[in-house]
Amino acid sequence: MAGRGRPRKVAVQKVPLKDVQLTQMKDVKFDPSLFTPIKTGTIVDTVLSNDGGIYPGTNTVVVGDPGVGKSTVLLDWLSNFQAKGKRVLFISGEMNEIDMYGYVKRFPKFGRLPILFMQNYSENPQGAIEKVFNDGYDIVLIDSWAEINDMVQEENGWTRKKAESWLLDLMDKHNKAGNERKRHTAFICIQQMTKGGDFAGSNRIKHMTTAMAHLKFDGRGRDAERYLIFSKNRRGDVGDKIYFSLHRPGNVEYNFENIS
Prior knowledge:
Blueprint: H1 45-48, E1 59-64, H2 70-83, E2 88-92, H3 97-106, E3 115-117, H4 125-133, E4 139-143, H5 145-156, H6 160-175, E5 186-190, H7 203-208, E6 211-218, E7 225-233, E8 242-245, E9 253-255
Parallel strand pairs: 1-5, 1-6, 2-3, 2-4, 4-5
Antiparallel strand pairs: 6-7, 7-8, 8-9
Helix pairs in contact: 5-6
């Protein structure tokens, strides 16, 4: 009779490394454009980094309370980056064209964003993403990380770990300008939280993340205000709150002070 319980892990024999290369940073050279931040032109820039804006080749994860406005705020950033002449892309794993049309009615500038609607490529999500990434972008917004991973995992019959590794490796490749235009792509990814409010995802996502932002409600009910705060930022400070309002169409409004 077969025993019950967890299956025993099979030991995998690793091939010994022939050589390990050490790096001295005095010998490393980078394109100076990597250290010129991309700006939204709003006060949000002041918390994105100490020099203002998002740096090329970095990864920002954004989590938030349900209904707080994650997609709206980040599409506002993306539109502002585009208005500054940057090449941007929105990958939507959750909305279709009809859903997006509602956003554009309230925020017309979103209508100029190039969008990859993943529902149109459900038979080959991996191929669609790899192909469009190769065009080369300054900023890519992914909404959401979990939805894209789930689509690729299901279609390919992969494990969650393999799907995550595929997307992380792809992001790393384009962080390092592995595309036709040689753009050091910066990624902004909306990520889900657990019921306990913790970050959902592997430790590798956390390690690759340059910054982690939280969008939260301050208070409860219809009068609750919204704010943005960074809990991790390798290029800037953490703990500063920026309040934002979605009441007026056209633009997200920001303020360091409590909006009352």
